[in-house]
Every structure is written in C-alpha cells, then in structure tokens.
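Re: the request from the purification team.
They wanted to know what the chain is likely to look like in 3D before they choose a buffer screen. I agreed to run a prediction and write the result into the notebook, where they can find it.
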Amino acid sequence: MSVVSMTGFGRGEARGRGLKVVVELGAVNRRQFDCHVTLPRDLAAIEARIHALVHAAVRRGHVKGSLEAVRVGRGAVAVDLALARARLGALRRAARRLGLADDLTAATLLDWPDVVRGAGDATLCPDAVWPLAERATRAAIRGLTAMRRREGRALAGDLVSRLARLRRIAAAIGRRAPGVIVDARAALERRIAAANGGLKLDDSTLAREVAAFADRSDIREELTRLDSHFAQARALFAGAESCGRSLDFLCQEIFREINTIGSKAGDAAISRHVVAFKAELEAVREQAQNVE
C-alpha cells in the first residue's frame, strides 16, 4: 500500500562518549517538502546532513523538529577567572564613578553563564556529535515513518470506500443515460403535437431531432474515462510509490468528467447524481491533501 499520511511524530535518542542526543520530528501537510530543525548553535554545521536524512524518508510535507545534545554524568564547575576579573573590575570602576556601593559577591558570578560553566556547557564539536546525532535522527525518522504509515492505512480505507461510492454513482448515471433519449423523444412528441393542434410529425423529422439531441447529450465517452480514472486510482493504491500528487491530479480529471456529464445530460435524475458525486469527490480531494 503506497498511501502514506503527511502527518506524524517520531523521537530518537542516542548516548555515547559522555553525551546524550535527543531528536524529535513532527510532520504536517504541505504541498512541497520543507524541513526546519532547531539545533544548538555549536552544531549548526550538521543541519544540512540532518535535512538530507529526513528528505530521504519524507518526500512531501512540512517537517519541524529539534535536536538536543547534553553531556551526561557529573562534572566540575569551570570558572573563567580572566573574564570574571575583567568584568568585576569594570563594574567596580563604574560603581565608584557613579557613587554606588560595592555590593558584588561571589553569587554575582552565577548570573554570568559565560563565566561559570557546568560540565554540560562545554562547546560541542559537530564532528564528534554527528555519529550520535545520526543514530538519533534515524530513530526519530523510523518512529515518524511508522506513524505516517499507520495514518496512511486509515486514509487508504476511507479513500477506497469513497471511491467505491463514486463508482456506484457513476454506474447509476450510466444506467439512466439510455432513458434520457427515450424520455426526450416522448417529450418532443408531446410538445410538437400540442403546438400543431394534434397533427402528427413526420417520423423521419422526429428521428433527426432525437438523433441530434442524443448526440449532444451523449455521455458515454465521459463515463468511459471515469472508469479509466477509477482503475488508475486502484493501481495507485496498490503500487509502491507515493501517490498523493497523482491522486490529487486524478481528482481534478474526475471532476472535469463529472462536470461535463452534468452539462451535457440535461436530465433531472442525472443532475441529482452529479450533485451527490461532486459532494463525495470533494471529500476525496480533501483526504488526498493528507497523502504524501
């Protein structure tokens, strides 16, 4: 089954070398592929590689995610003494000039994260983090793909049932079509008889008028193309490739055919079928927007 939803979520985690990397990915509908992953500033260099992994698994949709990398285990607190001295000196000089009390204490250093660093605050090396980031990203993609396939199976079931209803409506239109000509001939005879004061029209003239009407209202070609489109939809569902774009195109073609049928038939019963068909087709088109 090639029906895959564009919505889903996946999470992956990898540990090693005193690091823990967590990747989360969420996907929603979008006509084209788009990916945005938030990373620590130190790891901006691996963003393109993460996008490439995601794009290999996701062809259409907007993917938004995050990558977090933290050091695990206990570590000593590191203080940048040179930077601390420089800042303290500058603050004390400013306090003297402004006539302010010098109330700076050791606790003041805690407000300067670039001066006081925990073990987990050390700069991350992209090349060192990448093996873990790759593992975590692939795990998140597996989770995302599994959810999208589950959603896709539900979408496929709904689409198959809706397309079956469309086929039944098209079949009902096909059964009604021959009766349109019969009814048109009878109606024409009644109108002519009423207009001619009861005089009977020549059969050959009547036959020409009916033949002209039959030619204008012939919908066999459109019904044949509808059958072909339904067969293509079944082939798409049975194939191995993503079918969202193709299904969206088929819906446009199906709408074109049913619209022509409604214009040509000139029959109240067929018009009611066409209205029902269009309503069901609109539901199919909406669902198709969720398919990759």
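For the purification team: Residues 151-288 form one domain.
Please add any questions underneath this entry.
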